[in-house]
Specification:
four-stranded antiparallel β-sheet, Muramoyl-pentapeptide Carboxypeptidase, domain 2, 18% strand, globular, alpha+beta, 51% helix
Length: 158
């Protein structure tokens, strides 16, 4: 039986591949353009990944099925969470430790960690189920002491 790779390990492998590509884009196109390209590509990848996850839900998607994916992101102690509220229409939690941020800083990619990781979150919601919305006002990646995730589910999609 094979064990599913956690998202932290997957992001490390992706970052190892993307780092020299990003550095070359910066050298040729400048930092702003390189970040714009990288951000757009990562957002598209997040949408596609979410749609793939959603397609595997035999009874359709919901906030519960979305929350049930969380262990992929927390595997290997990648995130430490404090759940504030979880019910059929709310999934609120704070991240108090983010090994994604730690890893990107160790790899010399701290300045684009938000593009490689954080920017995926809202796009993933949209791709998984457009009835799920996310609000986050701060991230560890950009210097806060915690990330504040607030997901809402509107069953009517309004």
């Amino acid at each position: 039986m094979t064990e599913t790779m956690g998202i932290l390990e997957r992001r490390r492998i992706e970052a190892e591949i993307l780092k020299p590509v990003y550095e070359e884009m910066v050298a040729r196109l400048g930092e702003a353009t390189a970040q714009e390209i990288l951000g757009a590509a990562i957002t598209k990848a997040a949408l596609a990944a979410a749609q793939s996850f959603a397609a595997t839900e035999p009874e359709g998607t919901s906030l519960k099925s979305f929350a049930d994916l969380q262990p992929l992101w927390t595997k290997d102690d990648a995130l430490r969470l404090e759940v504030k509220r979880q019910d059929e229409t709310h999934f609120d939690y704070n991240v108090t430790r983010c090994r994604y941020a730690e890893m990107y800083r160790e790899m010399g990619l701290g300045s684009i960690g938000h593009l490689l990781s954080c920017n995926r979150d809202a796009a993933f919601c949209t791709g998984y189920d457009p009835r799920i919305t996310m609000e986050r006002t701060q991230t560890i990646m950009q210097g806060a002491d915690h990330c504040d995730f607030r997901y809402r589910f509107d069953p009517k999609g309004e």
